[in-house]
Amino acid sequence: MTLYLIGIGLSNEKDITVKGLEIVKKCDLIYLENYTSLLQCSKEDLEKFYGKEILLADRETTEQGDEKIIAEAKEQEIAFLVVGDPFSATTHVQLFKLAKEKNVKVEIIHNASVLTAVGEVGLELYKYGKTTSIPFLEDHPNLETPYNIIKKNKELHTLCLLDLKPQENKFMTIKEALEILEKIEERKQAGIISENTLVVGCARLGSENSIIKAGKIKDIKQFDFGQPPFCLIIPGKLHFVEEEVLKLFS
Ligand SMILES: C[S@@+](CC[C@H](N)C(=O)[O-])C[C@H]1O[C@@H](n2cnc3c(N)ncnc32)[C@H](O)[C@@H]1O
């Protein structure tokens, strides 16, 4: 018996790989981790396309129910579906580690991730520094980390993932994220963020209606990106080719 950690991509039910789909079809139980990212289709769309019933795994099911899932995988074929890639910007390495410790066979089926989809904006992936997340200020009123990371990344680009609480239908917008960075700038005064700082906002990457918009903070704050999920890039030093590609999105 095996625990399969399967990336289902970024957009809709058709983004699963052929290999992933074949495995899902033969599994006894299928969990969908639905609290770290968001697809552009519903659980029902996935169920219809996969021809299988899906159990939603919220943060509690996963982080406290790891033992249960591993125990099930000793007796049955279990698929654990993750939006994007199972190991990109998620915490599922815990589940993987526990499976290994309990001698449960684990197979990983990779897929596209936001960490690779941002390649579309034309900034070289190998010129990114540390990725950061911007959490809701209500949970972190004294937040400084994303600002410090942007500062430390210096000439490297910074990808900012934006907080989301899908159970509450709450997704941080690009405007909110920029306002948070501006607030931290007011406090820290290190000259990292100003209304003229060049940023790139991205919405629904990997889907047919994705949006990429590059511009000054003051302009990007006014731009309507539509539905989530969103991420934000603070470019570092630009190579002339990067500059030319960014112009296409301005
Ligand atoms: C914790 S990461 C999960 C990454 C996922 N496992 C993956 O491989 O893509 C989720 C965050 O990435 C960003 N994100 C995910 N998918 C996105 C997309 N299609 N377009 C823009 N941003 C996205 C959002 O900021 C979201 O809050």
Question: Can you describe this structure?
Answer:
The protein has helices at 18-26, 43-50, 59-63, 66-75, 93-101, 114-117, 145-153, 174-188, 217-220, 240-248, and strands at residues 2-7, 29-33, 55-57, 78-82, 105-109, 132-134, 158-162, 164-165, 170-171, 198-203, 211-216, 230-234. The protein is of the alpha/beta class and 250 residues long. The protein has a five-stranded parallel sheet with strand order 3-2-4-1-5, with helices on both faces. A five-stranded mixed sheet has the order 6-7-12-10-11. It has a two-stranded antiparallel ribbon with strand order 8-9. The chain is elongated and about 55 Å long. The protein starts with a strand and ends with a helix. Residues 10, 36-37, 82-85, 88-90, 113-114, 161-162, 164, 202-206, 229-231 line the site of S-adenosylmethionine.
Task: Give the SSE layout.
Blueprint: E1 2-7, H1 18-26, E2 29-33, H2 43-50, E3 55-57, H3 59-63, H4 66-75, E4 78-82, H5 93-101, E5 105-109, H6 114-117, E6 132-134, H7 145-153, E7 158-162, E8 164-165, E9 170-171, H8 174-188, E10 198-203, E11 211-216, H9 217-220, E12 230-234, H10 240-248
Parallel strand pairs: 1-4, 1-5, 2-3, 2-4, 6-7
Antiparallel strand pairs: 7-12, 8-9, 10-11, 10-12
Bound molecules: S-adenosylmethionine.
Residues 10, 36-37, 82-85, 88-90, 113-114, 161-162, 164, 202-206, 229-231 line the site of S-adenosylmethionine (SAM).
How far apart, in Å, are the first and last alpha carbons? Answer: 51 Å
Q: Flag low-confidence runs.
A: none
Number of strands: 12
**Beta strand %:** 15-25%
Query: What is the alpha-carbon Rg in Å?
Result: 19 Å
Order of helices and strands: EHEHEHHEHEHEHEEEHEEHEH
Bound molecules: S-adenosylmethionine
Q: Tell me about the biggest sheet?
A: 5 strands, parallel
Globular, elongated, flat, extended or rod-shaped: what is the shape? Answer: elongated
Oligomer designation: single chain
Distinct helical segment count: 10
Instruction: Give the rounded overall mean pLDDT.
Output: 95
